[in-house]
Design goal:
- The chain has one domain: Fumarate Reductase Cytochrome B subunit.
- Helix content is about 65%, strand content about 5%.
- A hairpin with a 3-residue loop joins strand 1 and strand 2.
- The longest helix is centred in the C-terminal third of the chain and has 34 residues.
- It has about 200 residues and is mainly alpha-helical.
- Helix 2 packs antiparallel against helix 3 and helix 3 packs antiparallel against helix 4.
- The protein has a two-stranded antiparallel ribbon.
- About 15% of the residues are buried.
- The structure holds protoporphyrin IX containing FE (2 copies).
- One protoporphyrin IX containing FE binds next to helix 1, helix 2, helix 3 and helix 4.
Amino acid sequence: MPDDGAPAAAPPPVSWSRAQRRLHWWTAVLIPCGFLLAFVMVAWPLSDLLLKFLLYQAHKTIGLTVLVLVLWRLLLRARRGRPAADPDLPPWQARAAHIGHLVLYGLMLAVPVLGYFVAATAPAGVPTLFLLVIPVPHVVAPDEAAFGVLRAVHLSLATLLVVLAAGHAVMAVQHHRRGRTTLLRMWRGAATPPVR
Ligand code: HEM
Ligand code: HEM
């Protein structure tokens, strides 16, 4: 107990929990899938309207699932915390990784929310059906001007998210090749090595 009588802060967990790891890898699979699907659905010919509709619903379902998984992940992170940075990491790299992770979280929230508003303002007025059966109400009406702007921002931020996530994955593999535990902690919950 510290001198001021305040309870000591709990130490950070030694690694990522199973739930945190599963959520990380599910989002890592779903985001590139949703991203690639977006270009296929937009390019799909209007003459094949049913398949185009299904591709759009699949894209919206993947995006909304990412949103729910990320909110769940942030809740777990707030309650359980995250393991301390690998002690072998130079402080500037730990700081850069921390900022990068915050930006990734921001984009993982912003891109699906913007996507929802793109869908709601789309002049075609196509409904959003989660898993093709659960209607998601649109809280704003179709609006061509707003749609044009939102669509461009949604596309730009989604591209930024995928590019940053790719850079993040390359860094994770680089650290692994240098013998650090970062990737093993996220892959199978390996323990953080003690400070030397
Ligand atoms: C991680 C989540 C998401 C990613 C990475 C993503 C990515 C993209 C990309 C790259 C495009 C642009 C395709 C193009 O213009 O060529 C796009 C378009 C679109 N997205 Fe998303 N999106 C996500 C979530 C969502 C969500 C949650 C919704 C709706 C509920 C949504 C609805 C749309 C719609 C309606 C378009 C097409 C606009 C049009 O017809 O031109 N997206 N998305
Ligand atoms: C769309 C793809 C991805 C996104 C959006 C993403 C996002 C994130 C975020 C936000 C964190 C920070 C977790 C936190 O502090 O709560 C994280 C951690 C991590 N990610 Fe990813 N990730 C992606 C793909 C990958 C891939 C493909 C790899 C490996 C090849 C990877 C390896 C890691 C590792 C090792 C950590 C733990 C870092 C640490 O312990 O400090 N990620 N990821």
